[in-house]
Amino acid sequence: MDSIQHLLHSAFDKPDAELIVEPIVVASDHAIAGWTQGDMGGRALLRRKGGEWAIILCSGDALKSVDALVKAAVPEGAAATLEQKLVKAEASLDPRRVAHSRFEGFVMMDETGHHPPQQK
């Protein structure tokens, strides 16, 4: 869990906006990390490869469904486990944090775990 927090902090920390990473749920070689930063929030889908975690994509509430996780190449069993663990973990959070899940759409990450440059 510490390596996932470190990865998200190194990718998204800003001097003027603290990144809060919680909850983190893991199933096999996949994880979902919830995050808030200022009045924005969302979730990151991660995959472990060779012992290292990498961010696959960022999204919002869409990552709470098995269907979306399977479409993102998470095996169905792991997707179901992630969904169940996420529901349980988010139930214990301050409702104001969960309400910040305003991230819309999907942002795919490159092989280094960073989002590619914006297309014009």
Q: How would you describe this structure to a colleague?
A:
The chain is α+β, with helices and mostly antiparallel strands and 120 residues long. The protein has one domain. It is 32% helix and 31% strand. The protein is built from 4 helices and 5 strands. Strands 1-2-3-4-5 form a 5-stranded antiparallel beta sheet. The N and C termini lie far apart (36 Å).
Rg to the nearest angstrom? Answer: 13 Å
Counted up, domains total: 1
Count, helices: 4
By DSSP, the count of extended strands is 5
**SSE order:** HEEEEHHHE
Structural class computed from helices and strand pairing: alpha+beta
**Strand order in space, largest sheet:** 1-2-3-4-5
Low-confidence stretches: none
Q: Which range best describes the helical content: under 10%, 10-25%, 25-40%, 40-55%, 55-70% or over 70%?
A: 25-40%
Estimated share of beta-strand residues: 25-35%
Cα distance, first to last residue?
36 Å
Described by strand count, sense and barrel closure, the largest sheet is: 5 strands, antiparallel
Protein name: Copper uptake system-associated protein
Topology:
Layout: H1 2-12, E1 19-27, E2 30-37, E3 40-49, E4 52-59, H2 66-71, H3 76-91, H4 95-99, E5 107-108
Antiparallel strand pairs: 1-2, 2-3, 3-4, 4-5
Summarize this structure as a short list of keywords or feature phrases.
alpha+beta; Copper uptake system-associated protein; 120 residues; five-stranded antiparallel sheet
Q: TL;DR of this structure?
A:
The protein contains four helices and five strands.
